Amino acid sequence: MNTAILSAVPSASAISERRVHWFAIVVLGLLWIEFASRLRFEWTINPQYGYGWTVPFLTAFLFWRRWQTAPVATETRSRFTLPGLIMAAAACLLPVRLIQEANPDWRLLSWTMALLVVVISSALIYLAGGPAWLRHFAFPIAFFLVAVPWPTQFEQAIIQGLMRADAAINVEFLNAIGISAVQLGNVIEVGSGFVGIDEACTGIRSLQATFMVSLFLGEFYAFSLTRRVLLVIAGACLAFGCNLIRTFLLVWLGAEHGSQTIKNWHDPAGMSILMICLFALWGLALMLRDRQNQLGSAVASPQPRRISRLLVASILVALIAAELGTQLWYGIHETRSVRMKPWTIGWPDTASAWKSVPVAESAQDLLRYNEGGGGAWTAEDGHSWTMYFFRWLPGRTAGLFVKNHRPDVCLPASGMTQRGDVVNRIWEVNGVQLPIRSYVFESGGASLHVFYCYWDGSAPGVNDLNQENWTARGRIEAARRGKRDVGAQMLELVASGYEDLTVAERAARAELAKIVRRG
After folding, report:
1. Are 293 and 10 within 8 A, CB to CB?
2. CB-side neighbour CA atoms (13 Å) of 235
């Protein structure tokens, strides 16, 4: 009797192992939370990745489902190499966080951190359950990557290409039903004016969300690899097809009833089409579902193998050191650095033909600035000018995100063609040094000169203009100098009618002298 009772009581070693396992789960959870916290900026700022807030919860659910059917833990091979790999990956967290703090919008670092987290998680799972566990839990680990923003150039190539195809197909349909339409980049010109394909800058927002949902449904219904691939392809086709319908509806309404109708129907049509797309995808998944598919046989209580407590503690120390080291590094530099006071502007509302230019609601949602707006006027020499000015208070990381939507990204998407390379100079206007980037675009045979200034309070220099946050070297240099987001301002001045860059720059300086004010 006593022997039976004693056998039912967990041994000290068994209790110790459970504590180690829970310790490992907590550390892994903290690692994934830290990773998700780095992505939250993009999830908040960029509507295309707003679905990212749901991915951690879906990932946790998929892990839980997989745990219910986890296979019996098996012996691991070459175990002596895995702790070294884990420690090497953990040691990389500090330099990645140091650079990432200065460049939260740098997607390459997001993918680097994703790789580190995946390597550490996969190696620990391998140590706990062997190859069988690694195969079993591979999908939930990889699924979280759908929340990581695509590399900018790849994303722009895909989305801009789809948007142009969208515009081209819709132009053919409109002309076929008797509505005269002309394609200009991502813009369709009809009798009542111009209609942008999802505002020319935002892209087909449902594409990434549909991709995530396709992968989730394939896992949820335990599809075979073939059916999962089929579901992903079907999701992409549904997203593009639904966007075609939405665009056609908006352009047709605009051509028949005016541009104001497009504004009234833009959001309802977008939401309706997105819901139709997702429900159609779900319906397809139900059709493909095979009731015989199972993730595996249920296991009453999966028993992971013992993991070194020292190894898990080392990961925790590396994680804490990365965060504390980052805050100390930037805190020390910020106490030593001298930052210039922000400058302000005065809108030229007394100029000839002055009028306010409203900022589209979609742009407001995208930029999330604290204050700003637009205006247009006619200069004394008879040329037309347009200006936009936005300000972000410290900590508003949307100011960093706007750099990915500078003129050379957005204006070509609206049908304009850039001529020549960007010219970087520092202009001194009313005692204020402004880093100016000069662009020349061609639109409908006419030249547009765009003068773009992104200012974050640092004393500008020529090297800053050429490197700051635009190249890998500039981004790493910003981290070395301990420079992170402390507030920003963006001014964009557009002049039309000037053929010579020198004349346009002289006129821009004259206009800025009336606008820019110290402090």
Report:
1. no
2. 25
In this model, does residue 426 exceed pLDDT 60? yes
72 pLDDT tier (thresholds 50, 70, 90): confident
**DSSP state for residue 123 in the 8-state scheme:** H
The closest of 442, 408, 490 to 160, measured between CA atoms, is: 408
Q: How many residues does the chain have?
A: 519
Q: Number of H helices and number of E strands within the chain?
A: 17, 13
Cβ burial 358-368 (10 Å sphere, 16+ → b, else e): ebeebbeebbb
Nearest CA among 236, 283, 308 for reference residue 83 = 308
Q: What is the pLDDT of residue 506?
A: 92
First to last CA, the chain: 86
Q: Which are the contacts of 270, defined by CB distance < 8 A and separation ≥ 6? A: 198, 205, 246
CA distance readout (Å), 197 to 71, 236, 357, 512: 49, 18, 20, 33
Q: Which residues lie below 8 Å from residue 254, measured CB to CB, with a gap of 6+?
A: 190, 192, 193, 195, 261, 262
Cα 143 to Cα 55: distance, rounded to the nearest angstrom: 8
**Which H or E element spans position 516?**
strand 516-517
How is residue 89 written in tokens?
């990956």
Q: What is the pLDDT of residues 350-407, one digit of tens each?
A: 898 999 998 876 677 667 787 889 999 999 888 999 999 998 876 555 555 566 567 8
